[in-house]
Amino acid sequence: MEVRVGILTVSDRSFQGTRADTAGPALSAAIRQPGWTIQATGVVPDEVESIIAKLIEWTDRGDIDVVLTTGGTGLAARDVTPEATLAIVQRAVPGLAEAMRAASLKITPHAMLSRATAGIRGRTLVINLPGSPKGALENFQVIQSVLPHAVELLRGDPGAEAGHQAFRPESA
């Protein structure tokens, strides 16, 4: 299945050109697999207004299924990606961030400091990832397998519900 992705790096230094964006290209390389395409990439500063503007632009385009942000999810004063994301999404998808934090806690206790979030705007899923290439890739790998199904559901694909089984308790 085709999954169309946008990758938005949130970093003052990368935006200013004083530090190379390494997380965005690392994610791009991981996403290039059969059926997945990168529709847009960009870099914005750690400013709520800039992040909001780009997220609205991309989610309202209609040709991006998943926007992955990288950076701005920590505790520093300028880490505002979750606030910008929550300002534009219409519905939260907390399970994605919960799964990423749970998996990351097996690697580092610092995972509990992540404020990453995820949500839906229109038919586009927006997911915050850490700013380091290692963290972004590790977190992406946690959620990667569910993204095609999420996209099917968001597109209203009639076959998307076929894989869901009603819970039936085992008889004694």
Quick summary of this structure?
This protein is of the alpha/beta class.
Overall geometry: globular
Look up the CATH topology: Molybdenum Cofactor Biosythetic Enzyme, Chain A
- The proportion of residues in beta strands is 15-25%
In CATH, the homologous superfamily goes by the name: MoaB/Mog-like domain
How far apart, in Å, are the first and last alpha carbons? 40 Å
Roughly how much helix do the residues carry, as a percent range? 25-40%
Q: From N to C, what is the helix and strand string?
A: EHHEHEHEHEEHH
Low-confidence stretches: none
Describe the protein.
By secondary structure, the protein is α/β, with parallel strands linked by helices. The protein has one domain: MoaB/Mog-like domain (Molybdenum Cofactor Biosythetic Enzyme, Chain A). 38% of the residues lie in helices and 20% in strands. It has helices at 12-16, 23-31, 48-59, 81-88, 94-105, 133-143, 147-155, and strands at 3-10, 36-44, 66-70, 91-92, 118-121, 124-129. A 6-stranded mixed β-sheet has the order 2-1-3-6-5-4, sandwiched between helices. A hairpin with a 2-residue loop joins strand 5 (118-121) and strand 6 (124-129). Helix 2 packs parallel to helix 6 (133-143) and helix 3 crosses helix 4. The longest helix has 12 residues, at 48-59. The protein starts with a strand and ends in a 17-residue tail after the last helix. The model has no long low-confidence stretch (mean pLDDT 94).
